[in-house]
Amino acid sequence: MTAAFRVVRCAALILAVAGVARAQTPPPEPPPRLEASGQFSFLGTTGNASSQAAGAGGDFTWRPDPWIHNGKFVFAQNETDGDLTARSFAALFRSSRKINERLSAYGQYDFLWDTFAGVDQRHIVEGGISYLAVNRAPHTVRLDGGIGYLYENNPDEHFDSATLSAAAFYRYEISKTSEFTYEPRFLLTLADAGAWKYDQVAALTLAMTNVLSLKVTHTIRYSAEPPEGFETTDTITAVSLVAKFSRAK
User: I need a surface site. Which of 4, 97, 110, 197 has the fewest CB within 10 A?
Assistant: First the structure.
């Protein structure tokens, strides 16, 4: 038996064993049919200056195949020396239907109330296409493109426009007990292209038990043409305790 033949035979054996191992590797478990979580955060300081910051939120995901329904809300408030300096409420509901393994169609409703940023109410109704660009652990990347309609009330006037949007969702599973997510979104208002908006949310979640997690979130909201007397950029940083529940069926 020549050396070359032994090498070929060993290579064939390795490939065969690898093929059997792949065949025996169980497929990844499907995500739970229902997931829900609630979160609360509070930070207070006293002494030379006193301040209190509080926040609450919640979300759910329901997966009646081939549909996926998501809903979430976030409330934040801050007081400094007894004066209310910030208060906002944001909510979103989204339904998507799978077209194939990577492509899906979605519709969503987005609401924002933030009087300290000059937004008495903002409503955005949108529909579009979502593409799962990467779905290989530990990374997940989803890209969205949509068209919609925006209506916004501020202290001086109201503004409405058709919109075009581009958004993404990135998830990095750092370990079995921690993950990082990043969600940027760009919104172009066709009635006035100079009034475009940009939001992003970055979050780091660390599991402490099967139910409880610690979550650090940083949110940026940017409006290129804010109401007169208001800044273009608002940021919210929150450290929250999260309770999460899931149901497989």
Answer: 4
Of 237, 150, 231, 134, whose CA–CA distance to 185 is shortest?
A: 150
**Residue 26 β-bridge partners:** none
pTM score, whole prediction:
0.83
Q: What would you report as the CA-atom Rg of the chain, rounded to the nearest whole angstrom? A: 23
For the record, the structure tokens of 93 come out as: 């509901």
Structural element, H or E, at residue 7: helix 3-24
pLDDT single digits (tens) 92-135: 999 999 999 999 999 999 999 998 899 999 999 999 999 999 99
Q: How far is residue 233's CA from residue 52's CA, in Å, rounded to a whole number? A: 22
Residue 211 domain-assigned (yes or no): yes
Q: What's the chain's length in residues?
A: 249
Task: Name the token pair of 3.
Answer: 């050396």
Name the one residue in this structure whose structure tokens are 């109401």. 227
Q: Is residue 8 part of a domain?
A: no
Distance CA 183, CA 229 (A): 28
CA-based nearest residue to 201, from 152, 168, 240: 168
Tally DSSP H helices, then E strands, for the chain: 1, 12
Return d(Cα 93, Cα 126) in angstroms, integer: 11
Domain with 177 in it: 31-247
The answer to whether residue 17 sits within a structural domain is: no
